[in-house]
């Protein structure tokens, strides 16, 4: 998986470098997806020239997309035995729902820009931004966590590389 990841990264880098050179000599326009992304990136860099530059990775972008638009918006569960969680008692058979999308949009967890698209929040990784709490779980959590999550992330990167 790491090897494929490296290859996809090198492929994307190659595409971007080639386009960068072409743009510098005025060969291409920004009328396609890659052009638009690069133009917005250049603008961002210019606007924040004096601040510390943050390099946004494809993983950070996918994490932010999965945070704002989790494909599985909530996880249903049935309590299989009486369970006490803090002050709350969950009796056997109770149906509960873990509202992924609500947790992912919670201002108390993600801050004032919780509803905005800001991949930079993931710059130090998922554990850091969630302060080690289970507040980002697009692939579920625990024993039933998605077994295809690494595959899905890789597939998305390959698809993006192909589109670009
Ligand atoms: C963006 C893509 C995907 C998302 C958001 C996603 C999300 C999830 C979530 C939230 C669960 C947990 C369900 C629960 O706890 O009730 C799950 C479970 C699962 N996912 Fe995914 N998944 C994705 C892609 C994939 C892929 C590509 C595969 C297979 C190649 C896969 C295979 C599975 C399987 C087998 C389970 C059940 C695991 C278990 O119950 O032990 N998923 N997925």
Automatic annotation (TrEMBL):
One of its GO terms (molecular function) is oxidoreductase activity, acting on paired donors, with incorporation or reduction of molecular oxygen. It is found in: Membrane. It comes from the Eukaryota. InterPro entries: Cyt_P450 (IPR001128), Cyt_P450_CS (IPR017972), Cyt_P450_E_grp-IV (IPR002403), Cyt_P450_sf (IPR036396), Cytochrome_P450_Monooxygen (IPR050665). Belongs to the cytochrome P450 family. Keywords: Heme, Iron, Membrane, Metal-binding, Monooxygenase, Oxidoreductase, Transmembrane, Transmembrane helix. Heme binds at residue 146. It holds the Pfam family p450. Its cofactor is heme. It is a single-pass membrane protein. This is 11-oxo-beta-amyrin 30-oxidase.
């Amino acid at each position: 998986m790491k090897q494929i990841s490296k290859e996809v990264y090198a492929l994307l880098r190659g595409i971007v470098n080639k386009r960068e050179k072409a743009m510098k000599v005025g060969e291409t326009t920004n009328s396609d997806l890659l052009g638009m992304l690069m133009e917005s990136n250049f603008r961002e860099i210019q606007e924040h020239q004096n601040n510390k530059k943050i390099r946004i990775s494809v993983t950070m972008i996918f994490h932010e997309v999965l945070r704002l638009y989790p494909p599985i918006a909530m996880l249903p569960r049935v309590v299989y035995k009486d369970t006490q969680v803090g002050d709350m008692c969950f009796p056997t058979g109770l149906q509960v729902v873990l509202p992924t999308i609500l947790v992912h949009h919670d201002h108390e967890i993600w801050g004032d820009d919780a509803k905005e698209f800001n991949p930079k929040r993931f710059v130090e990784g998922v554990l850091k931004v969630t302060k080690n709490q289970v507040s980002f779980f697009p692939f579920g959590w625990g024993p039933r966590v998605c077994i295809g999550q690494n595959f899905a992330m890789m597939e998305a990167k390959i698809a993006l590389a192909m589109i670009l």
